[in-house]
Design a protein that fits this description.
The chain has three helices and two strands. It is mainly α and 95 residues long. Strands 1-2 form a two-stranded antiparallel ribbon. The protein is elongated and about 70 Å long.
């Protein structure tokens, strides 16, 4: 894939970057070099390679998903402006 001058100008416009006429050729060469490196990646044989999310092996810490009532409803509603029977009370907004 090759980037032409019109594409460089369009990329600059989309990125909201002002590209002067004398800079177009420089950016065109740089983008074509980058795309050349990306095209080299398609030559790599990745059959049998597992996808990874990190370069270091990690295991997520997990806990049992246990439903509880919290055991302290009074503390939960303590800072509420208005509560009743350990429930938050809010003003009526729909008639």
């Amino acid at each position: 894939m090759s980037v032409d001058a019109a594409t460089v100008k369009r990329i600059g416009r989309l990125a909201r970057i002002r590209i002067e006429e004398n800079e177009v050729a420089t950016y065109q060469d740089e983008l074509n070099t980058i795309l050349g490196f990306v095209e080299q990646l398609s030559e790599v044989d990745v059959t049998g390679v597992e996808p990874m999310t990190s370069v270091t092996p990690m295991v997520l810490r997990r806990r049992d998903d246990v439903v509880t009532d919290g055991g302290y409803p009074e503390r939960i509603v303590a800072n509420a402006p208005l509560s009743e029977d350990n429930f938050f009370m809010v003003p009526k907004v729909i008639e």
